[in-house]
Write a structure and sequence with these properties.
The protein has 699 residues and is of the alpha/beta class. The protein is built from 22 helices and 23 strands. It is 29% helix and 15% strand. The strands form 6 sheets. It has a 9-stranded mixed beta sheet with strand order 9-8-18-19-20-17-21-15-16, with helices on both faces. Strands 10-5-4-14-22 form a 5-stranded parallel beta sheet, with helices on one face. 47% of the residues are buried.
């Protein structure tokens, strides 16, 4: 156990700490402090959260509690009616009881009333400090919400990052020893409600006077995204998927059944537990698994949540017209503007600081973060905490343990491995209480959670004609190129590749084109390179890619050697969040009883949203900040397309390639369809069904 500092802090010392934004590190009077000692030290503030009840007197002013109201409650109970006392803490001043705060201190809203509003400054925020572990998207978002909505002084916010650069999984690096590196990309859509709520407030670092959202909105209006070739076969030939899903009736019924299944009935089940080969042989599955990186052994629950979350985008799945992209790579487009915003606010970034544990004290039902254990440039340090010190931890990481290769070396053996300690940190925290989740559920089988990506940078004009022949666009135009991934349908690696707007890097040589390539199956031999992808150098991965582009075989080796440079990255945990799970495996954003601690990111649990998205990271950050700090503003609920009958009807028709669900052969239940048509005839229901293509002209 490392030595932690316990100081008797005077009021003056506390003020100096707040003003300087510093941390208590091991120094003068070091005292050996074990977990038990930390757990016993100090007392935490009680959770002030009463369950909300109804009240008969709707006319009460906010916070007004009178003797009459108490008497009225007693009288109401006596009369068998449910009445309600309101306090300033919990009265929402809206439809009675609709937006009550939950046990985490959060409530959800929709519409632009709260979306455009600024909350009042939370009480006591000037006396609080925040320690944020990691500097990925979720962590930076939490810091932004602390500044913007929590109105916490920037100097009181401390970001502890193990590496020497911010961004986490959202990267984009011009490595002078390797070349351009992008481990992944970020696809976004209109209804990332929390993400856009954040970026409307983040100033652009390119265009004075506008926000990142403004920039993004204008770009995607002027240059909308869509694909002209979704898949290829036979070495670069258009597979002519032509926007069709090619699902059998049985496959459609299996999808509909999954859609309607309760979450708890899908705990620990895999996709192959709920689908058979008819679905797996469909074009739909090609679209789905290559776009989202789902494998047969992944979580059926997560797939169901994806269906429900993005039901409004089923029509845009074949050609990616539902998607929107940033101008540059995600680091320059998203991370850097946030970092600049936070630095301008005075937020304290502490790089080369690896957090190894958060020590908790348990007092009755309360769970209090008491100390942070960390290593600063390899030296063990400690940070003592009070209940006024809020701690936010990104638990787990999809890019932890990334192995970097280069043009002439495979990402194995002696290759560089980048670790941040995210998994070990979560394991250390989880040992202290069951409500902190089960990390082993996600990170214990890398054979099922890995895939490999590579960044290919073209160095001259020789490869570009083969690209243009497939995507039908000029890669150097600065506009949409492929419009999303192009999947090589008959690739042994199930290779997919994409070219976003060029340059992907602000300072990128205009003659060069950056291509992102990934393979879902890393342990099988390639079609040209007779080796598993995981054992291939950058040059060999380029060879395999060129083969599937349709480059003449006799030219492949020379082009891979002289006309491109490739940096492969093996990511052992890239789809760890898709592993089958059950209740409690992912901890709540604010675990029950926590008074000053919250989880962030892809392995924290929040209702209805889906992992592997930028929205999920930002949503967990907003919930964590609003809940712990008591920000009186609603978190925008997940877009409710799953409850929109229009979207449900339209999507069912799209899944069936234009056929109506009423054309499904129900056997002995077929007469029910005639009864349905008779019941809806002449009603608004009939109109909706006709508008969405469920009722055809001949019906």
């Amino acid at each position: 156990m490392i030595a932690l500092v316990i100081k008797k802090k005077t009021a003056a010392e506390g003020n100096r700490r707040n003003q300087k934004g510093g941390t208590y590190m091991a120094s003068k009077k070091n005292i050996g402090l074990g977990v038990a000692a930390v757990a016993a030290a100090g007392a935490g503030a009680a959770l002030a959260a009463k369950s909300l009840k109804k009240h008969a007197n709707v006319g009460l002013e906010q916070g007004q509690v009178t003797q009459d109201s108490f008497d009225g409650e007693k009288a109401g109970k006596a009369a068998g009616r449910s009445h309600r006392k309101y306090t300033e803490l919990d009265y929402r001043n809206t439809v009675l009881g609709r937006y009550d705060k939950n046990s985490k201190g959060i409530y959800y809203s929709n519409g632009n009333y709260e979306a455009f509003a600024r909350p009042r400054k939370p009480e006591g925020v000037d006396e609080k400090n925040a320690y944020i572990v990691g500097s990925g998207l979720a962590s930076l978002a939490a810091a932004c919400f602390l500044v913007r909505d929590g109105q916490m002084p920037g100097s009181h916010i401390h970001i502890l990052e193990s590496m020497d650069i911010a961004g986490g999984a959202c990267d984009g690096i011009d490595d002078p020893t390797r070349g351009y590196v992008m481990r992944g990309g970020r696809e976004m859509e209109n209804h990332f409600e929390c993400l856009w709520d954040l970026f409307r407030s983040i100033p652009s670092i390119e265009t004075p006077g506008v926000s990142v959202l403004d920039e993004y909105y204008w770009l995607n209006k002027e240059d909308p995204n869509y694909s002209l070739c979704r898949a290829t076969v036979n070495r670069g030939q258009d597979a002519h998927t032509d926007g069709r899903f090619n699902l059998s009736q049985k496959g459609c019924m299996e999808i509909m059944k999954l859609f309607m299944t309760k979450d708890e009935d899908l705990y620990d089940k895999t996709i192959e537990d709920v689908f058979d080969e008819e679905m797996f042989d469909s074009t739909f599955w090609l679209y789905w698994r290559t776009m989202f990186a789902f494998e047969n052994w992944h979580s059926a629950l997560e797939m169901k949540l994806y269906f429900q979350r993005f039901i409004h985008h089923i029509a845009g799945l074949p050609d990616f017209s539902a998607l929107k992209f940033t101008k540059y790579n995600q680091y320059e487009s998203l991370i850097l503007p946030m970092q600049k915003y936070l630095e301008a606010a005075g937020v304290d970034f502490q790089f080369n600081t690896e957090v190894t544990n958060v020590i908790f004290g348990f007092e009755g039902d309360k769970k209090i973060a008491k100390a942070i254990e960390c290593k600063v440039k390899g030296v063990e340090k400690g940070i003592m905490l009070t209940e006024n010190d809020l701690v936010f931890v990104t638990n787990g990481s999809c890019t932890e343990g990334t192995i970097y290769g280069d043009q002439n070396h495979a990402p194995n053996g002696d290759a560089e491995v980048r670790t941040s300690g995210c998994w070990s940190l979560w394991k250390n925290i989880a040992k202290q209480d069951p409500s902190f989740g089960r990390p082993e559920k996600f990170c214990s089988d890398v054979a099922k959670t890995n895939w490999e990506s590579a960044t290919v940078t073209t160095l001259d004009d020789k490869i570009l004609p083969y690209i243009e022949a497939i995507c039908k666009r000029d890669p150097r135009s600065g506009k949409v190129v492929t419009g999303g991934i192009v999947s090589c349908q008959d690739s042994a690696w199930l290779l997919s590749w994409t070219i976003n707007r060029q340059g992907q890097f602000k300072e990128q040589d205009k003659k060069k084109v950056c291509v992102w390539v990934y393979g879902l199956f890393t342990d099988v031999e390639g079609d040209y390179v007779k080796k598993p992808m995981k054992d291939c150098t950058g040059k060999e991965i380029t060879q395999e890619w060129l083969y599937h582009l349709g480059v003449p075989v006799e030219e492949i080796d020379e082009l891979a050697e002289k006309s491109a440079v490739c940096v492969p990255t093996m990511m052992p945990y890239i789809t760890a969040f898709f592993m089958p799970r059950t209740a409690g495996d992912r901890p709540d954003v604010i675990p029950d009883g926590c008074v000053n601690f919250a989880f962030l990111g892809q392995f924290a649990q929040t209702p209805r949203d889906t992992v592997f998205t930028t929205e999920y990271s930002v949503r967990t950050a907003m919930e964590a900040v609003y809940g712990l700090l008591g920000v009186d503003r609603g978190v925008p609920e997940v877009w409710g397309s799953v409850y929109d009958i229009r979207e449900l009807l339209s999507s069912s028709v799209k899944l069936m390639d234009g056929k109506s669900p009423l054309e499904i052969n129900l056997g002995p239940l077929n007469p029910v369809k005639k009864l349905l048509l008779k019941l809806v005839k002449g009603t608004v229901v009939e109109k909706v069904m006709r508008d969405q293509g469920v009722l055809k002209e001949w019906m």
